[in-house]
UniProtKB/TrEMBL annotation, chains A, B:
Gene3D superfamilies (alphabetical): NAD(P)-binding Rossmann-like Domain, UDP-galactose 4-epimerase, domain 1
Organism of derivation: Lasiodiplodia theobromae
Keyword vocabulary terms for this entry: NADP, Oxidoreductase
Top-rank lineage group of the source organism: Eukaryota
Secretion signal span: none
Domain NmrA-like: 3-307
GO molecular function terms listed in the Swiss-Prot or TrEMBL record: oxidoreductase activity
The protein's name in its UniProt record: Isoflavone reductase family protein
InterPro entries linked to this entry: NAD(P)-bd_dom_sf (IPR036291), NmrA-like (IPR008030), NmrA/Isoflavone_reductase-like (IPR051609)
């Protein structure tokens, strides 16, 4: 069988990097990466090119015709665009329809949440999904819960996990009992390689998952495997709600301030994951998601325990600062 | 087995009437109707009460506690509220969640269309669906295409169909070839009685259907069965688009003018059904709908041909003017 031709947008980000690795490792894909003109000379792009991946230069905010022409002959377009630029995917989707792309994978890659009114990031994604549905463009939405790489506490007396952490973390929200879908960033691309070759996932939402764990369970696993006692900073439900309120007010005052947006994303995540408890398999299924664990029973994801062992062995790479 | 307790909102409208008849005929339901205080003394309500149906008086814009209390012990709440009041369903849904209602059937009952940006009526419904999803309230969305009762031409030289028509109709849009899902208003409740007893339809969208016919096919069937030649008023795609534009401008100028809203609904329907071609089984399935014909292969819907025969025999009742 001929290899499926995939065009990947955002290949130098954390998500895109995992997708690229997963698709190349899988072997059934011929991957091209889409890069904006200003990034063409970046070392990260050059490195990918050296792996034999074709680099396509185009501005996704440029003319539609160019976006059509680069997607001609493409089977699957996969978008892992940065969180701030979700709406820029609209033209790419319009062009994908015109080019006859067989499956469009918009930028989801996040926790399970309702389509509207809970997380501003999800609201933006929903606008893209609705645009895709208006176009009658074949699609798959893939959500991955929360990464192990941003779900572990760093508050060990030894500080030996600091090397892999994007930010220090010692928070436990509410009673710490809300379970959440998590998964390893390194698995994200391996799941994707399975999902986009599967007819069952066409025009569907899918979630991937390694474990469903509460914060209390996460802290226990880390204490057990490190033999250290973790400091815990208790955040009440009232504080979660106050943070959302504050982030909304600041966002309205200065809508273009990137830090305000990042604070809003963080506040929304805490509200959705720990107060509402959205990011769980049962709710995902209620919302219409397929469970990747059921679709691919042979897939062995990296568990949180395995991740912590890797952390202890110094094997975890800190994600770049593009994740919000 | 104990009868399922259903609370029906909008029972005196065309859709609600069909639902009430379908549920009572089915036999497995104990139906209560929800009526606003100002309608309690209406003859149509009295007539329903005379059939042994319990009448519950409450204001759906009133206090939530009252809406909780009337839904305690209810298995299924079915809403067939008028088109202008879609957003008033929000509190009823909030209360349904608190009361432990096992299935909420919001007011859908229309043609298949994308969730956002094509029909303003669908946009309003989507806000209600999104509210339901935020609540994690079990639901079923039931769409029925377009009724036979508003899909037949009246432009016969004999004028013998005028008695059953809400408005004269002689339009053919574009090339007249766009197929549309249609169904008989009298079947709407019979379908509903099947769908709301079915675990497979929980948290799903379902469409019902008797025929999928283009306007040209509809005109041919009527000409064949009447032996008369129909007058046809050709409406171009450009005219459809111009009507939508005009209706949007008028709606923005006078948002509270009911006639403007009705004109907008009509323009949107024509745009969606005849220009975009949304109201078709394939697109419905793409959007995630289940096909009621596949779920209930033994269900024999009234076909459009049978409807036209009934029309000829004077058996069709003209719908009331609540349908938009």
């Amino acid at each position: 069988m001929a290899k499926q031709r995939v065009l990947l947008l955002g290949a130098t980000g954390n998500t895109g990097e995992s997708i690229l690795n997963g698709l190349l490792e899988h072997g059934a894909y011929e991957v091209q990466i889409l890069v904006r003109p200003s990034s063409a000379e970046k070392p990260a792009v050059k490195k990918i090119a050296e792996r034999g991946v074709k680099v396509v230069i185009a501005d996704i905010n440029g003319p539609i015709e160019e976006l059509v022409s680069i997607q001609k002959g493409i089977d699957v377009t996969v978008s892992a665009i940065d969180a701030q630029s979700q709406l820029s995917q609209m033209n790419l989707a319009t062009a994908a329809k015109k080019a006859g792309v067989k499956r469009f994978v918009p930028c989801a890659w996040t926790s399970v949440a309702p389509p509207e009114g809970v997380m501003i990031l999800r609201d933006h994604k929903e606008q893209v999904y609705n645009h895709i549905k208006r176009l009658y463009l074949p699609y798959t939405v893939i959500d991955v819960g929360f990464w192990h790489q941003v779900s572990f506490p760093t508050s060990l007396p030894s500080r030996r996990f600091d090397y892999a952490a994007m930010a220090p973390s010692n928070e436990v929200h509410g009673d710490g009992e809300r379970p959440n879908i998590i998964g390893d960033l390194r698995d994200l691309g391996r799941w994707t390689a399975r999902i986009i070759a599967d007819e069952r996932t066409l025009n569907k939402y899918v979630f991937t998952c390694s474990d469903v764990l509460s914060e209390n369970q996460i802290y226990s696993i880390v204490e057990e495997l490190t033999g250290e006692k973790l400091e815990r900073n208790q955040i009440s439900y009232e504080e979660i709600e106050a943070k959302v309120k504050e982030a909304k007010i600041n966002g309205e005052k200065e809508p273009d301030n990137v830090m305000n947006r990042v604070m809003r994303f963080k506040a929304d995540y805490d509200y959705s994951k720990y107060l509402r408890g959205d990011n769980q398999p049962e709710y995902a299924k209620y919302l219409g998601y397929l469970d990747a664990r059921e679709l691919y029973p042979d897939f062995r994801p990296i568990t949180f325990r395995e991740f912590v062992k890797d952390l202890l062995e110094g094997k975890i790479v800190k994600p770049h600062y593009d994740f919000l």
